[in-house]
Each structure stands twice: as C-alpha cells, then as structure tokens.
Specification:
Layout: H1 3-35, H2 41-53, E1 59-62, H3 65-68, H4 73-76, E2 80-82, H5 90-98, E3 106-111, H6 114-117, H7 138-146, H8 166-174, H9 193-211, H10 225-240, E4 243-249, H11 259-270, E5 274-277, H12 299-316
Parallel strand pairs: 1-2, 1-3, 3-4, 4-5
C-alpha cells in the first residue's frame, strides 16, 4: 500500500469518526429531550421523579425490591418517597443519597441485606442503572468511574449511556404507566388465593428438604469492601448534611442462618450507626397472608411493617 492510499484511508476513518460523533450527539440530545419528560417506570421515570422532588421531602426509603414493596412511605410521612428499586444494592442507593441537598434536615431509611453485604464478589455493578445520567450528572459519573464500571466508548459516544433503556423510556413516554404526581414510589404486592397456595406448597417442600440436610451458614463473614467504603461515606455525608441515617434489614419468612445478621449488627454498632434487624419481625405471627414469597411482603404485611417504620421515624424526629 503506497502513502497516497494510506492517507486516503486515514481521511475516510477521520471523516467516519467525525460523522459518527455528530450523529451520536444528535441522538443523545434527542433522547435527553424525550427521557426528561418521562416520570413513570423503572427505566428512567422513577429516577427522574426522585431527582425532581428530592430537595423538598423529609423522608426517603432506599434499597432493593425488599424496600420498594415492603414500605409505604406515606404511612410514615406525607412528605416522603420510596426509592427502592428491583435488583438494586448499595452502590445505586448510596449514589442517590449523595445527591440529596446539603444541610437540609431529612431522614434516610436504607435497606441492607446482610447476605449481600458479606458477598465478596459484589462489584457495585447495580450502579450501572444510573448510566443514563453518566454524561449529565458529575456525581453519578464520579461514582461509576470510581467503581471502574465506566465504558471508555461512552466518553466519546454519549448515547451509549441509554443502552437497554430506550424501549422502556419510549413506552412510558408514549403511554405513562400511572399518574406520577400521586405516586409515592411504593409498589404493593397483591397476592391472590392461587399465588398463596403455590407459596404454601413451596414452604412444605422446603421444610421437607431442610429437615433432611444441615443448614450451611456462610463461614467467612468479611464485609465487602464496597459496602465498607459506602457505609463510611454515607455516615460522614449524613453527619455533615443534617441527615438522620437509619439502616435496616427487611423481614424474611424464615432465616436459615442469623450469623451474618449478628456480624453486620456488630459492625454498624461499632460505627455508631442506627441499625434495625427486622429479619424475624413476623416470626411470632407468620401469617401466610402477610407474604408474597420468602423475602417479599404482601400488601397486608407491608401495611403492618410500615406502621413499625413509622414508630421509628417518629422517635428520630
């Protein structure tokens, strides 16, 4: 290949890069305009609603589906929002907490699952659910980069931050799922008789299998380094910004091993953090009607549990 041909190829490559860069930015800003009008659904709507109201409320719930489905924040305070999301762990929640306004008095109820806290393989990849804001919010960008979940191409092609979210965004743009102005972030689970019967059968099967083998508790209980770092950071953030941080573990139908709960309690107590382990909250009254499955409450169970959370909130006001 002679030098003339090589120069021609280089020019074509540069031209392609320039065109793709410009097209990417047009797509990115187009998606921004659409997504900024979406306030329903978990693709981006619930996040947009949180970012819109976070400076005005006094009580927030953060965590996974075990926060989202288990606590009605309006039972706790009229000025509240449940930012629990399916499949989210600490990296996602901690980043959103850090976006709360400085020095405004607010109460933060943060769900932590001991099993996840002691999982050495947890990498904080749930933070990628915030990637649509990567090139729009400096703190979110900083947190994603810190956990090394940044995509090098994303710094050049910004529209990549909307990967896997476009369909959900468009669906909720064209047909919103609910009236977000009356939505508190809480998604109750209504269980019908058929579902309850299925759960009963699962419990009977599990009981038989458990009786035939020993429960294997996790042997090494070392707090995941990402959990350790975020717990320290959130503790400092809340102290400096007039926030009350309450950490809790949501109820489960039957906890096979409590070692991780005990160890997490010790760690958080040493850090002078308020921690409530509600794993066995329904142990003395384990009515099947209170459950959807072993880790998620039905709307009936959530109503009772929310009343308990209210009593803790009132005590800390």
């Amino acid at each position: 290949m002679n030098s003339s041909s090589l120069k021609h190829i280089i020019k074509i490559i540069i031209l392609i890069l320039i065109i793709s860069f410009v097209v990417d930015k047009l797509v990115f800003y187009g998606l921004n305009k659409i997504s900024d009008k979406v306030y329903t659904g978990q693709s981006i709507g619930k996040l947009n609603q949180y970012l819109q109201i976070k400076d005005d409320l006094e009580f927030f719930v953060f965590g996974s589906s075990r926060a989202n489905h288990n606590i009605d924040p309006i039972k706790v305070s009229e000025h509240s929002f449940n930012m629990g999301m399916d499949g989210r762990k600490l990296a996602y929640s901690a980043t959103l907490i850090k976006l709360l306004p400085n020095e405004k008095k607010q109460t933060i109820l943060l769900h932590i699952d001991p099993e996840n806290a002691f999982n050495k393989n947890y990498s904080g990849d749930d933070i990628l659910a915030l990637s649509s804001k990567y090139n729009r919010n400096s703190l979110i960008k900083q947190e994603i980069d810190k956990l090394k979940h940044d995509n090098l191409l994303q710094n050049f092609y910004w529209s990549l931050s909307y990967n896997n979210k476009v369909i959900g965004i468009l669906k909720n743009y064209l047909k919103p799922k609910y009236n977000y102005k009356t939505y508190s972030g809480y998604d109750p689970i209504y269980v019908n008789e058929n579902q309850r019967e299925i759960f009963q059968n699962i419990l009977e099967k599990d009981e038989k299998e458990t009786s035939e083998k020993e429960i294997d508790c996790q042997k090494e209980l070392v707090l995941n380094e990402i959990y350790y770092a975020y717990i320290n950071e959130l503790s400092e953030f809340c102290k400096e910004n007039n926030k009350t941080l309450i950490i809790f573990t949501s109820p489960v139908f039957d906890d096979g091993c409590s070692d991780d709960n005990i160890e997490l309690n010790k760690i958080l107590k040493k850090k002078n953090l308020d921690y409530y382990d509600f794993t066995n909250f329904f142990k003395e009254n384990n009515n099947l009607e209170y459950w959807k499955d072993k880790t998620h409450l039905s709307n009936k169970g959530a109503e009772i549990f929310s009343e308990k959370i209210k009593s803790i909130f009132d005590k800390n006001r």
